[in-house]
Write a structure and sequence with these properties.
single chain; about 650 residues; alpha/beta; seven-stranded mixed β-sheet; 9 helices
């Protein structure tokens, strides 16, 4: 048997090869091919061509799902000039199942068939592209990261010399990602794909087109006369896309690059990125998301590095499809690259963005890198600054970081060391986090006009006493650990005049009225509220300018409400606070606050059992059980009233 089997397989291959000469295919899937799914989460698999010899009456396509026969399509052949055309389209869903397509020719006898094509492991799913330089290719040795999944695919190869070498036009085969370095998606690309496959049961294709060490000038080149020019990075990517039939079916493009320019031509980065982004828009239309990374702090000598890092932060406000992500503070950083764990962290973080944008994820709280919105002095003495991030961000002031320098000497850095007023450190002496703000205490009354977070570079890349091997932080973070974007020379606004006259008055058991003196400069008000069991202030309402009152109708007995009103302009804010406690009356309306027993005090808002004098309301979504005779003054049921053994309710006249 060991001698016979190789000859048997050789005979089958020869038979298929000879049969294939009977047909010329214009459309035929490859084994391991991924077809982009459409809005209905299915993909069409076309099969078309010509039968090149007479004597055959029909052609058929058979489809298998996980090697289980699904059905057959058949067409009668009509010859003209000695050849006969045919065309089929099979539909497959995007799922963790692999499809097989076989094409047969039939002679006059229905049982006389010839297998002319057999393609296996075909799937439908989503396509993502990665571009940039080495932190985009994110390759580590197999002993550090070796994950593979049959439902994560790629097309073509990641070329030699860190994808900077010549590309062989014959490299157009589909395969499983990560079998070799040339089929790698990179660690963070693979980790993102892994989570999509596991959580959403959708196959994924990743084309990694990054080039190790490449500058933005190299990556932005496009040959207008031949966009698929294999001498350009853009052309090689475009060639793979077209060979895979992926044009129009790509979900998103990820771009991570800029390390080259920290000791190179940093001033050109913004303009060259705009060229690259334009190339993507032109040649890969239909991409709805472009994810751009702000690079980490590196050793270098070019001061303009801070300028283009700030551009990477701001570019999402310039182009609607762009979403940005900060890489500062990622674990496993060696000063240029990251460990497998660091790249895996990035994969997990960008997955949450992709899951939000494409898969309807509800995990959206604190998943974006905090981005500074405005900076302003908070008092007339200008001895305190507020750095404000997006609404909803919950910021954290980090503890100091202690590390070693190149020579083993201890170093301690605080966040205050990396906050520069007019490019000078040492003015910030302390800080604290308040909601979406960081409040900075300065070393006295200041007049500086701009604030920066993180310097342009961390040393010059050479060993120096007093410097760690890689920038150690600490870093501005939100409650979930996402690090804030570094920013450079953001204007500081003058303080607003104080917001005065805020008063909170209880007007009923379910209403608190807020009144205040109209601020002279506000363009809107934001009213926030905090209850004893809330971890932070939550927005109650956005109130138009020139308004001086608001009634909060979502209050309840036995709760102290702390209110914060913010008078807002695009540049600064003024804040006032007030509080109100709604005391429980001896007789009043008791409202259920949870499912429970009627005679349990914890079921009711005032923490006591209803009496004959009380009005009682069972809230929607609550189930209250009565297990004895009770008497109340009035009863309203919006939820469920359940009677146990001996349970009765009497309404007093």
């Amino acid at each position: 048997m060991r001698l016979f089997l190789p000859f048997l397989l050789l005979g089958l291959v020869a038979s298929l090869s000879a049969a294939a000469q009977l047909v010329t295919f214009s459309k035929l899937p490859q084994s391991y091919q991924l077809y982009p799914r459409n809005a209905q989460s299915v993909a069409s698999v076309p099969v078309a061509g010509r039968v090149m010899q007479t004597g055959y009456s029909r052609v058929a396509v058979q489809v298998y799902r996980n090697n289980t026969w699904q059905g057959r399509q058949m067409q009668t052949l009509t010859y003209a000039g000695g050849t006969a055309p045919f065309s089929f389209s099979a539909t497959i869903p995007a799922e963790l199942a692999q499809y097989r397509v076989q094409v047969y020719l039939y002679g006059a006898n229905a049982t006389d068939s010839v297998l002319v094509a057999d393609r296996q492991h075909i799937v439908a799913g989503d396509v993502f592209i990665i571009g940039g330089q080495s932190n985009a290719s994110a390759y580590v040795p197999a002993e550090e990261y070796s994950y593979q999944n049959e439902y994560i695919r790629t097309l073509g190869v990641y070329g030699e010399n860190f994808n900077l070498g010549n590309y062989n036009p014959a490299d157009t085969l589909w395969t499983t990602c990560g079998l070799t370095r040339s089929t790698s998606a990179g660690v963070w690309g693979m980790e993102m794909a892994r989570r999509i496959v596991e959580q959403y049961q959708i196959p994924v294709c990743v084309l990694n087109a990054a080039a190790g060490g490449a500058g933005i000038e190299y990556l932005s080149v496009r040959n207008a006369g031949d966009p698929m020019d294999l001498n350009t990075n853009h052309g090689r990517l475009l060639y793979r896309v077209h060979k895979g039939g992926l044009q129009g079916g790509i979900k998103a493009y990820f771009f991570r690059q800029g390390e080259n320019e920290t000791s190179g031509n940093a001033p050109i980065w913004p303009s060259k990125f705009e060229e690259l982004y334009s190339n993507v828009q032109l040649d890969l239309p239909g991409i709805s998301r472009f994810y751009l990374f702000q690079i980490h702090l590196l050793g270098g000598f070019n001061a303009a590095t801070a300028v283009f890092r700030d551009y990477q932060r701001r570019v999402g406000n310039m182009h609607a499809p762009i979403r940005t992500h900060a890489t500062v503070g990622t674990i496993g950083y060696d000063g240029i690259h990251f460990s497998a764990a660091g790249y895996a962290q990035t994969g997990a973080e960008v997955f949450r963005l992709v899951a939000r944008d494409f898969y309807g994820s509800t995990d959206t709280d604190q998943i974006t890198s905090p981005n500074v919105q405005k900076i302003y002095y908070t008092n007339a003495a200008q001895s305190e600054l507020a750095i404000q991030f997006e609404e909803g961000q919950q910021m954290v002031w980090p503890a100091d970081t202690t590390v070693q320098d190149y020579y083993g000497n201890p170093l301690t850095h605080g966040l205050r060391d990396w906050l520069w007023l007019d490019q000078q450190a040492g003015r910030v002496v302390a800080g604290r986090a308040v909601g979406n703000q960081l409040i900075l205490t300065l070393d006295g009354s200041r007049s500086e006009q701009k604030l920066a977070y993180l310097p342009p570079n961390y040393g010059n890349g050479q060993p120096q006493p007093g410097l760690a091997r890689a920038f150690p932080g600490p870093f501005i973070r939100n409650r979930r650990g996402l690090r804030a974007f570094s920013f450079w020379e953001v204007p500081i606004a003058a303080p607003l005049s104080p917001l005065t006259g805020l008063v909170a008055s209880v007007v009923s058991g379910t209403a608190v009225q807020l009144t205040w003196t109209d601020h002279p400069a506000e363009q809107a008000y934001i009213l926030e509220r905090k209850r004893p069991f809330d971890s932070t202030f939550l927005t109650v309402a956005q109130v138009p300018a020139n308004t001086t009152s608001f009634t909060d109708l979502s209050t309840n007995y036995n709760v102290t409400y702390q209110y914060r009103l913010r008078a807002v302009t695009p540049q600064a804010e003024a804040t006032a606070e007030a509080s109100a406690t709604i005391a429980c009356p001896s007789v009043g309306e008791l409202v259920s606050v949870k499912t429970g027993g009627f005679s349990e005090a914890a079921t009711w808002n005032c923490g006591r059992v209803p009496t004959v004098a009380d009005r009682v309301r069972i809230s929607a979504g609550h189930r209250v059980e009565v297990g004895q005779l009770v008497t109340v003054g009035r009863l309203t049921v919006a939820g469920t009233l359940q009677f146990g053994a001996g349970g009765q309710i009497r309404i007093a006249p």
